Amino acid sequence: MPRVRDARVSVGWALLFISILYTTAPAVAAFARTNLIHSVSDTPYAEVPEWFTKWEETGLLAFDDANGDGRIQFTGPSSPIANELTVDRDIMVLANPEIASLPNWVVGLVAAGGLAAALSTAAGLLLVISSAVSHDLLKRSFMTGITERGELLAARVAAGGAVLVAGYFGANPPGFVAQVVAFAFGLAASSFFPVIILGIFSKRTTREGAILGMVSGITFTAAYIVYFNFVAPELNTAEHWWLGISPEGIGTVGMLLNFAVTMGVSRVTPPPPAHIQVLVDLIRIPRGAGEAHEIQA
User: Fold this and answer.
1) What is the pTM of this model?
2) Could you tell me if 84 and 66 are in contact, meaning their C-beta atoms sit under 8 angstroms apart?
3) 157 confidence band (pLDDT: 50, 70, 90)
4) Where are the domains of the chain?
5) CA 281, CA 292: separation in Å to the nearest integer?
6) What pLDDT was estimated at residue 220?
7) How far apart are CA 198 and CA 19, in angstroms?
8) Contacts 24+ apart (CB under 8 A), 193-200
9) Handedness of CA 284, 287, 289, 293 (dihedral sign)
10) Per-residue confidence band for 112, with pLDDT thresholds at 50, 70 and 90
11) What is the rounded CA–CA span in Å between residue 60 and residue 166?
């Protein structure tokens, strides 16, 4: 039988590698932009490398010779100097290996890795969405008498609806890839993260507090993101942001709001039943999955 210690070690290594991935991403982005600038800045358009013409054909890379000198003036998107090169930020992950003159198999490896990550994430999220709607929402809350066949049908409908919504936003993205990922992490941080942490480390956390905390956190975060990206995109600048916080970073504030509401409401509502508090103790210090399952039942 696998030991609890083995599971903890596996999770620890996973968190370490995930931390390395996300902390090195900004450095990779900075290196990619520097490499792009050094590769094309002040280069005659007639002498651009092969990768430049390939991406130009897709329309995701465009050169506008504003001064008519035949050379590409590009010093970065935030430079005060007028840039003659327009680069779609979504192509940099795939274009960077070509810009760095790496072999074709590296480009293929990057593309395969990105596709595999996208498919695995999408599959996992579809399973979570379908089971949450069919079992947690319907079976355990609104339609307790639903049959297994009906539950399966609800799961399929929920998965189909999620695919349609995801397909729409894939065809009409609200921002470039990094923005969308930041929105997703912000919404997750403002909704699920505080409840998961408090559910393990605070036996005083109640159902009412958890529900109101999640609703308040995700409502605040989603409203902030929607307002600046869909309702009033012309105001999506630093001078109009609340306390200078961008929509990509507002999830941290939503998370703190979730913590505050959850803990506040939990203090003024009846504490969880005794068997739930015992279950929390078993989660903290596992003594066997069987015993925890029996307590929950």
Assistant:
1) 0.65
2) yes
3) very high
4) 4-100, 103-172, 174-297
5) 9
6) 96
7) 22
8) 193/255, 193/258, 194/255, 194/258, 194/259, 194/262, 195/258, 195/262, 198/259, 198/262, 198/263, 198/266, 199/280, 200/280, 200/283, 200/284
9) negative
10) confident
11) 22
Host H or E run for residue 106 = helix 104-131
Do residues 183 and 224 lie in contact, with contact meaning Cβ atoms separated by under 8 Å?
A: no
Tens of pLDDT along 172-213?
877 777 788 888 889 999 998 999 888 888 888 898 999 999
What are the distances in angstroms from CA 123 to CA 115, 117, 156, 163? 12, 10, 13, 10
8-state DSSP, 140? I
Per the prediction, the chain carries an average pLDDT of 83
Alpha-carbon span 204 to 93, nearest angstrom? 46
Beta strand extents in 85-207 (DSSP E only): 85-87
**Close Cβ partners of 270 (under 8 Å, ≥ 6 residues apart):** 206
Q: Could you count the other beta carbons within 10 Å of the beta carbon of residue 126?
A: 17
Please compute Rg for the chain using Cα positions. Answer: 25
Q: Both tokens of residue 108?
A: 């293929």
* Residue bearing tokens 């579809």: 126
